Amino acid sequence: MFEKNNKKTIRAWAMFDWANSAYNLVITSTIFPAYYVAITENKANGDKVMFFGHSFVNTALSNYALAAAYFVIVLMLPILTSIADYRGNKKAFMQFFTWLGAVACCCLYFFKLATLEFGIICFALAAIGYSGGFVFYNSYLPEIATVDNQDSVSAKGFSYGYIGSMILQVICFVFVLAPGIFGITDTSFPARLSFLLVGLWWIGFAQIPFKGLPAGNAKVINKKVSVLRGGFIELGKVWQQVKHMPLLKRYLPAFFFYSMGVQTIMLAAAGFGAKVLHLPTTSLITIILIIQLVAIFGANLMSRLSAKYGNVFVLTGVVIIWIIVCLIAYFINNAIQFYLLAAVVGLVMGGIQSLSRSTYSKYLPQDATDTASFFSFYDVTEKLAIVGGMFSFALIEDLTGSMRNSILALGVFFIAGLILLIALYKHEQNLSMVK
């Protein structure tokens, strides 16, 4: 264990969000979706593409790829995080996934229609790197901040991420918007250059948390037990603890259902704007920048509201707003409406991500040393939600031919999450009355 609430350590931790959020903004939210739709739609085949001999709707294929990537993470992380706690080397795993994601982004520089299979594989590997590194990053939160500071520290991390990603987004935006200034004649080059810059930005700034965060504390190792078996033993111990933690046990299902909606909207929004509303790349970038700016305010606002009204109460209100967002998104048909909705999404996006993480952290034993294993449950829940959300989103579009139907269906997941949050809130109130 090391000193909690140390400002230098917290800043180093938050810089990891600064480093990897560029991937989330450029690759999943703006330039990549617009570039992907542009190169995969043509008069001959419409929105159909061939992937290893099989025909797919272009946006459905990319959503299937993300679902597959997150499913791989679901299978890997429970084992890796328990091994990380067992060996005390979670920073090494954080570094591995960071390099995987960053290199995959750099390789997207070579992505064109002729290399579709290669591009989709790199796209999926980048997602694995991003989500894998984030698990170990999240697990530091209860180690670097006391319970009363975890909401604000979590918000600080997301704020750093939004600011850092916006800076790189603006740099990429200049190349996309005005390629002629730099003598660029290849129309695909600005987008592909952006992918390369994301990878370099990601691995470059990640060196700050790699230097500022400790490796972790190893368990007392029984030499007769293999590392892999030790990892499973550690995971089993954490699972037994989770089963006897009533608030955490109720929170995870609620988090799962509303995350199916939140994460899918975040990953599919740009594709919706490009394909359904036919918005150009410049408009998509502008919209996402609006979301990022508002999200900084949203993350800090939710932190303050939670201090006054409680985490679960605020989360319940935010989920209600998300349900309304889904209903409105089904009917929008122009850029102005999308801009206005984006501002609302930004407000609740930053808030729900930050507050979800700190709420989970508060429900953990604050003296626990196996935080990576505990956070694997959180992240596996989130990744399973992404798998279910993205797969259902892609499947509904495949079956009905409309992304609007997919968006509307997400409202059902939010409603389920809302019901479970209300039940959690009531249980929390009952416990406080007993005390």
Give an overview of the whole structure.
The chain has 435 residues and is mainly α. It has a single domain, classed as Growth Hormone, Chain: A (Up-down Bundle), CATH 1.20.1250.20. The protein contains 16 helices and two strands. It has a two-stranded antiparallel sheet. Strand 1 and strand 2 form a beta hairpin. Helix 1 runs antiparallel to helix 8, helix 7 packs antiparallel against helix 8 and helix 11 packs parallel to helix 15. It is globular, with a radius of gyration of 21 Å. The two termini are 30 Å apart. The mean pLDDT is 85.
- In helices, the fraction of residues equals over 70%
- The third-level CATH topology is Growth Hormone, Chain: A
**SSE class:** mainly alpha
Q: What CATH architecture would you give?
A: Up-down Bundle
Shape: globular
Counting DSSP H or I runs of 4 or more residues, the number of helices is 16
The first-level CATH class is given as Mainly Alpha
Beta fraction: under 5%
Q: Main beta sheet, described?
A: 2 strands, antiparallel
Mean pLDDT: 85
CATH homology superfamily: MFS general substrate transporter like domains
How many domain units? 1
Q: What is the spatial order of strands in the main beta sheet?
A: 1-2
**For the CA atoms, what is the radius of gyration?**
21 Å
